[in-house]
């Protein structure tokens, strides 16, 4: 008997695809439900109360409908604000997305690191704790960028996004005191690994952009290590809370992540 229950990935938009991709690389037969709360996108400019009130309820509805074996909150904003209430509301394992401050500090020679996330994420006490625990000897520069989230979404829809827009975002870190010595940047929003190559291309010098996705994928594989999977890949479903513009470029992109069907919550 194989177990047909899916893994449920959750984000405000397409960012969680950066966590889904490394997970599929390790667990290629895992049935996938990818849920995007596009009706409430973007999360990064919302209040803590709004996120904490919405995410556990939504994940309750999604788990009731899709009966997943495990949930991945593939969103730093939702994880840093709502991980505990989601865990309290669900009786299955919930994996959160923690800003990759520890690996960014490990990668840094200069001991100046950047944390690039949403406005909501970079102001969280959770980030203070990670910085104190894993980067106590580093200068930790933070920058929240709703613009970069929008650029990642536009890029995935197949739209042209100008280099200058990426450069303006990176300047938000590089222009801070100490920014001239920063050598490593934690991509603390799951949207950002999707456009990390664009950031690397316009950076004035080589910077390490640290993506937490592969570590989360390994965690999912570990937590499900004793479970069975279908014997062949299963078409995945992308579920949206609001209307989408199903352009061929967008649908093709989703299909590239194994998401062959779309549905509405
Ligand atoms: N992808 C999300 C994150 O990791 C949120 C982006 C947004 O909706 O602002 O924080």
From TrEMBL:
Binding site for substrate: 11-12, 43-44, 76-77, 190-191
Source domain of life: Bacteria
Any Pfam family the entry gives: Asp_Glu_race
Alphabetical list of InterPro entries matching this protein: Asp/Glu/hydantoin_racemase, Asp/Glu_race, Asp/Glu_racemase_AS_1, Glu_race
Catalytically driven reaction(s): L-glutamate = D-glutamate
Presence of keyword Cell inner membrane: no
EC number: 5.1.1.3
Listed PROSITE patterns: ASP_GLU_RACEMASE_1
GO MF annotation terms: glutamate racemase activity
GO biological processes: cell wall organization; peptidoglycan biosynthetic process; regulation of cell shape
Pathway(s): Cell wall biogenesis; peptidoglycan biosynthesis
Keywords: Cell shape, Cell wall biogenesis/degradation, Isomerase, Peptidoglycan synthesis
Active-site residues per Swiss-Prot or TrEMBL entry: 75, 189
Keyword Kinase among record annotations: no
Function comment: Provides the (R)-glutamate required for cell wall biosynthesis.
Family note: Belongs to the aspartate/glutamate racemases family.
PANTHER family, A to Z: GLUTAMATE RACEMASE
Protein name per UniProt: Glutamate racemase
Organism for this UniProt entry: Sphingomonas prati
């Amino acid at each position: 008997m194989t177990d047909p229950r899916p893994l449920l990935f959750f984000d405000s938009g397409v960012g969680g695809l950066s966590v889904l991709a490394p997970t599929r690389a390790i667990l290629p037969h895992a049935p996938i439900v990818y849920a995007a709360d596009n009706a409430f996108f973007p999360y990064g400019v919302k209040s803590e109360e709004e996120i904490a009130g919405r995410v556990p309820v939504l994940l309750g509805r999604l788990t009731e409908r899709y009966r997943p074996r495990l949930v991945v909150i593939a969103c730093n904003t939702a994880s840093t604000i709502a991980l505990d209430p989601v865990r309290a509301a669900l009786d299955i394992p919930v994996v959160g997305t923690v800003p990759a401050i520890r690996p960014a500090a490990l990668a840094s020679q200069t001991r100046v690191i950047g944390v690039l996330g949403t406005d909501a994420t970079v102001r969280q006490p959770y980030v203070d704790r990670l910085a104190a625990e894993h980067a106590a000897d580093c200068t930790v520069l933070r920058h929240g960028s709703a613009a970069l989230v929008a650029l990642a979404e536009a890029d995935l829809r197949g739209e042209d996004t100008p280099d200058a827009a990426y450069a303006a975002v990176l300047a938000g870190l590089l222009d801070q005191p100490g920014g001239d010595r920063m050598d490593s940047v934690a991509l603390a929003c799951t949207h950002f690994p999707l456009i990390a190559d664009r950031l690397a291309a316009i950076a004035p010098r080589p910077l390490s952009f640290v993506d937490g996705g592969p570590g989360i994928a390994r965690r999912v594989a570990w937590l499900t290590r004793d479970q069975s999977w279908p014997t062949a890949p299963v078409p995945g479903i992308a579920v949206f809370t609001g209307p989408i513009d199903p352009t061929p470029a967008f649908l093709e992109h989703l299909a590239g992540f194994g998401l062959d069907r779309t549905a509405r919550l």
